[in-house]
Amino acid sequence: MAKETSLQKHESESIEAERMREGPVFVPHVDIIEEKNRFLILADMPGVNTGDVDIRYERGQLSIHGKIEQRQQPEKAGPVVREYGVGDFYRSFKIGEGIDDDGITAEMNQGVLALNLPKSEKARPRRIEVKTS
Amino acid sequence: MQYLNRSLNPFQELRRQMDRLFDDYGTGRHRPFQLTREKYPALNVWDEGERFLVEAEVPGVRNEDLEIHTLGNELILKGTRPALDRENRAFHRQERGAGTFTRVITLPAEVDPDQTGAELMNGVLTLRLAKAKTALPKKISVKAG
């Protein structure tokens, strides 16, 4: 495994949640996994429908935005326990040049977004042949 | 804080601080981040008069990996989220956590186990728990005399 991959090197810590719509915005928990030929980002975004995820990749900046429809606000109900708030999810990452942008794919399953970021040819581990002279 | 002990062994001090960190999570044992700490999943509960509405965020947990029980006025929520494969991979961030969780919550009234509804959608679990008849306020009619 390459020690310093472009994703790790350039990942910015700018995970401030930007306000794009009304309501609270939350930062989803993520797992960032590197495999031989790709990066995989998994993000917890419970309550987000498949069609409500906005993924942008511009100039090395990848951002994910999961939109929540307000869930049941029970009428005439008194809150008994309130341990979490509900709102959109937003997070952005700075990824380097090692990604093949055209190959980025995404899937939503049970509230988890899986982002597949294939490494560009030059970032893949290559076997170098040694010729005898 | 025992300042005297600091000079003894820097690793002991680190261990002490790590103990304190993990203690917050309720297990007291030193394991890598797991979901077995006390407060997972986070819950929101509403009292709708004749029933309770319970909501929990459990992304990545499948239907078959969830176990929900009620006992009197207790709700027991168990589940598991499988750990990710670790072979041939490097983890640059691991915030999501995996493992089994158990959450027991005491509701303000008993619930009727035969009248419960549950739904799992996009990683959000919604439970509708009807209160037991005995827990509902009964109207008392006063005879005019």
What would a concise description of this structure say?
The complex is a heterodimer of chains A (133) and B (145). Chain A is mainly beta and 133 residues long.
Describe the structure.
The complex is a heterodimer of chains A (133) and B (145). Chain A has 133 residues and is mostly beta strands. Chain A has a single domain (12-71, 86-122), classed as Immunoglobulin-like. In chain A, 4% of the residues lie in helices and 38% in strands. Chain A is built from one helix and nine strands, in the order H-E-E-E-E-E-E-E-E-E. In chain A, 27% of the residues are buried. Chain B has 145 residues and is mostly beta strands. Chain B has two domains: 1-31, no CATH class; 34-84 and 96-133, Immunoglobulin-like. Chain B is built from one helix and eight strands; from the N terminus they run αββββββββ. In chain B, a hairpin with a 2-residue loop joins strand 3 and strand 4. Chain B starts with 9 loop residues before the first helix and ends in a 14-residue tail after the last strand. Mean pLDDT of chain B is 80; it is low at 1-6 and 22-37. At the A-B interface, strand 2 and strand 6 of A face strand 1, strand 2 and strand 5 of B. Strand 2 of chain A pairs antiparallel with strand 5 of chain B, so a sheet runs across the interface.
Distance between the termini of chain B: 72 Å
- Relative helix content of chain A: under 10%
Low-confidence spans of chain A: pLDDT under 50, at least 5 residues? 1-19
- Rg of chain A is 19 Å
Structural class label of chain A: mainly beta
Which structural class do the helices and strands of chain B define? mainly beta
Strand order of the largest sheet of chain B: 1-2-8-7
User: Could you give the order of strands across the largest sheet of chain A?
Assistant: 1-7-5-4
Assembly classification: heterodimer
Mean pLDDT of chain B: 80
How would the global form of chain B be characterised? Answer: elongated
Give structural attributes.
heterodimer; A: 133 residues; mainly beta; Immunoglobulin-like; four-stranded mixed sheet; four-stranded antiparallel sheet; 9 strands; disordered N terminus; B: 145 residues; 2 domains; three-stranded antiparallel sheet; 8 strands; elongated
